[in-house]
Amino acid sequence: MLLVGLHRILISPRRASTWVADHFVATDHGLPPREALDSRRPGPPPATHRQEERQAVVDAARQGSWKTAARYVGEAGEDWDERWTRLALLQHVAEKDDAWLNAWRTAEPDDCDAATLTASLMVHRAWAIRGSGYAHEVMTSDMERFKALLPAAIEEARKAALLDPANPGPWVVMITASRGAQYSRAAFRPLWDGLVARAPHHYEGHWQALQYWCAKWFGSDRRMLHFARKAVRNSPSGSPLAGIYLHALDELTEGSSFGTAAVTPLSRSTLKLVAASFEQVPPDDERLPVLRHLLAHHMLRSMLYAGALEQFRQIGPWCGAPPWRKEGDAVAAFENARGTAARLSRARPSSGPQTHGIVR
Question: How far apart are CA 114 and CA 103, in angstroms?
């Protein structure tokens, strides 16, 4: 059985790669041809009206109009994921020039969104000093500055939370800062409880908490996977929250000396649940394309070839996503991956016209 397993993991994909290079015809499997592949993006661009709305908000902020920014965030209402996405857009604007944000805080000192944005910007600037490397790779002076800035950011977020007790935004900021601030598990849990009491399925909040529970911070592989599987089980219809599990698998791959996470019956069944959950997510959810790429990638590694092939059909011609870009030539990596899925799934070539992925 061990030999069979090793053959499936190591030999079959290599033989499939040879077949892909010589014989794979994408359109025979309901996939767009190689010449149609686009490595500039992971998925189709946002709808025109969304792009225009965002650009108008960015332009207004750059011109000093905080009222446009405030209205834009407020119009998200209690769609807390959307509200956070809008704050994230404004944070990118404020990174280069925060005069408009300072004016907003001065004009409306009791506005929770403005206070949350300020706290989030403080955390982001602290992380920019630290960088993304492991602790031993960071200069001592940068690490000291990083640790000194975070307590002030957390205090700012705590003040923001008092301005609107129902708003989960400040709690996302505190969760984001907690691992850098070296919060113990006992100190972290009240932050998590505070978030889920307000927004139990908050995507960004879950992603930041996943980072806390991974082995390189204050958890372990076991704790991280337990957290991620719970997110899959609790993901409501229409939410991409189950995708948190895919990020957990990425963490395992990054930390594995073999360059991949172990394939188990539980991991395979969880991937199937993730795929089923994604079928309920609106196709225009802008988080979905990247998650489908991750799902196809991990299904392929888990020998769920038919499931991976279906994801490639859903993805269509877009291949500018991390699993393929890290190989250097995203088009070549994507082509080999989807061809391997087609070959090892033993799918019969299809006939007739095909539509590929999401078209706008």
Answer: 10
